[in-house]
Amino acid sequence: MKKLLQNPIYLLSSLVFLIGAVVLAYLTYSNLDKGFIFNDEAYYLSYYRNTGESLSFDRSNFFRIFKFLYTPNIYHFRIISITTLVLSNFLLCFSVFKFLNFKKYIFFLSFLGIFIGFQSWEINNLVLHQYIGNTILVNVGVSLILFSLITEKKIILILAGFVISFTLFDGNTHAVVNAPLFAFLIFMTPKEWRIKLIYFLLGYIVGIIIYFTFLDTLAHFFHQFKFLEEYLHYNRKQHSKTFMVLWALYLFLNAILPSIIVVFLLWKAKFSEKSLKIFDKVILFVALATFGLFFFFQEYFVFSFIVLTHFLAIKFCLSKTESKQNKYLIILLLVIPYCLTFGSQTWFHLRLNAYKFYYFLLIFIVLFRSYKSIFWVIGYLIPVSFMISSFHNILHVKGWKDFVFTEQTEKVKVNGYDLYLDKGRKKDLDDLRPYLHNQKNVIYSSNHLMGYLYILDAAPPIYYYFTLKDYIAFIIKKVGKTPDDYIYIESNDYPFYPKEIVPLKFVSHPEKYKVVKAGRFTLYLPGNFQKK
């Protein structure tokens, strides 16, 4: 007992992380058979079902890489996906703590990764896609690099390179994560970086060869780029160059610029003891602001959270007691989220929630190594404890996924397996089934309807997020059909955008179409329509 009490910070943190992992795991696994995200989740699952043969402007090949984990039972697939993710988080935590030579409770402290993994995704959109997939690949790859450095066994780098190579294909622009990983390996071993890089590259090349031998072809891979170019001809909104500029500008203003200013001022002060003490006070102020925003103004919390993470990373890198290798590891944890959010077509601070694990791990390390104060760690554990205690609230809140877990009481067969949906969507499926079941030529008014097509085994000419008239016409012609070959489905809640597609104006022979009302939907059925 005395030995336990000699390290109260380690013991307290271990207990909180362990309790958090157990509580969130229970709440997550007990609700994974409920609800369905009718846009994104259906979009991702459609790739697994048709092995990526349907046309798409998305160059991610997650469904090829992780097909060995796929099962048409959505409940089981969600379990497989989130379990693989949180275990990869655990592995990274364990390898990082081991590399940094944490003395106590490394195994239990690593439950931080499991807890944050569950908390980040909030039982939401969990079928394995490019964002979850790249996180798994990076976590495992970095862990293997660290284990190689710890054990001084170069052969492990072959396996690390093999795993990391798949990030080239899993998520288009997210492949930029390769740059800091290569730099990390080189800087970590300045005396023998060449030989270690050769081992790493050997595994990397083997991974690429296996990908193009068993999972995809070079011709198809490059065809994706050509198809993307065709898509951009019709619409720049989805992959806007302006957006990327604004993304970089936002990140610069919120994260990089404050860090540059701090380092410049410290340099001007010659990193004197006085300037470093002032910097500690600045960090304390930002930490208190972050703490307050977390509890009272959640919508602004992330801005302060990003600044705090960067300031703590600077604090760690200025330490005279930490090795260069430890500092390189902290910098890597800091930049990984940038790479995994790059090109994701949403703002960094909105996507950050999926990758905040790296920030929570970084902050925890710096608090332990640079401050070694129970007050700082308690300040860290209070929000963590709140995240644990409030997690159950998501079961009662209607989020962007547009369903409430407690309302998912109706059993529906999806791919032949049970899934529970709410009464409204169960009725929608009953209304639509006579018209859409097994129909392979369907054009829908909004991506919110993808789920109905997926469950009813219907298919569009392309899975799309925007019903762009010229683009859809181009795709229809590309697959050798005409607008008159398709069923059009329109939702009362998400109708066709009048400036784009108006079904009876889009087709050549509207007189041959029959308009049918089915619950909350309007269906435009071609003359040759036959119920299946």
Short synopsis of the structure:
By secondary structure, this protein is mostly helical.
What are the key terms here?
single chain; two-stranded antiparallel ribbon; four-stranded mixed beta sheet; 532 residues; mainly alpha; 6 strands; 62% helix
Tell me what you see in this structure.
This protein is mostly helical. Among the domains are: 241-291 and 300-372, no CATH class; 427-526, no CATH class. The protein is built from 24 helices and 6 strands. The strands form 2 sheets. The protein has a 4-stranded mixed sheet with strand order 3-4-6-5, covered by helices on one side. Strands 1-2 form a two-stranded antiparallel ribbon. Strand 5 and strand 6 (521-525) form a beta hairpin. The protein is globular, with a radius of gyration of 25 Å. The N and C termini lie far apart (70 Å). 40% of the residues are buried. The model has no long low-confidence stretch (mean pLDDT 90).
What's the number of extended β-strand segments? Answer: 6
- The helix-and-strand class reads mainly alpha
What is the string of SSEs from the N terminus onward?
HHHHHHHHHHHHHHHHHHHHEEHEHHEHEE
Q: Work out the radius of gyration.
A: 25 Å
How far apart are the termini? 70 Å
Uncertain residue segments: none
| Strand order in space, largest sheet | 3-4-6-5
Quaternary structure type: single chain
* Global geometry: globular
Strand content: 5-15%
The count of helical stretches stands at 24
Q: Overall mean pLDDT score? A: 90
Helical amount: 55-70%
Largest sheet: 4 strands, mixed
